[in-house]
Amino acid sequence: MIASKNIGFKSVLTGLALACSLALPALAAEINGVKFADTVKVGGSDLKLNGLGMRTKVVFKVYAAGLYLTEKKTTPADILAVQGPRRVTLVMMRDLTSDEFGQAFMTGLNNNLSQAEKTKIVSQISKFGEMFASIDGLKKGDVLNIDWIPATGTQTELNGKKIGETVPDVAFYNAILRIWIGDKPADSSLKPALLGAKS
């Protein structure tokens, strides 16, 4: 009689544990205390976390970065060829002025694009520059999402609020991605992390 009660109690506990685990949002990974969801919804599609890592400069942590795709990809060429929505999420680890972030953005583009490639998207680069100028800067803990949505364009959100104009050309979004996964990435250890390499 006692044994059967114990079995019943264990079953209840197991059921409660399972119910609680199903109620919690799935968290795929964590880096330096920053948690990234396993999936996010962009443009009506569920995207999976492809990889995440930390952008460092000298010894300072600048931001945690996560790349979301419709399905896992491990090479830059495959990621740039994805037809569906994509997202890069940056979680700031320190304060940056808008000038500092804008300068880092331009350095990343200059390092990974030819002059001809930059000329084709110069107006879009200018729009992004205006977006940086429109904000005071980025604070520690801020979350910046840079999304590609087919038939819409590149949209940027800061802490859930849309900032800047929508930029329609996919070549521009791919140029942004090359800042992190191009031939001369902003951080050589961040690139393989975004490509899904195990740390």
UniProtKB/TrEMBL annotation:
The Chalcone isomerase domain sits at: 28-196
Q: Which Pfam families match?
A: Chalcone_3 (PF16036)
Where does the signal peptide begin and end? 1-28
Q: Does the keyword Signal apply?
A: yes
State the organism named in the record: Massilia soli
Q: Which UniProt keywords are present, listed alphabetically?
A: Isomerase, Signal
Q: Which GO terms describe its molecular function?
A: isomerase activity
Record-given protein name: Chalcone isomerase family protein
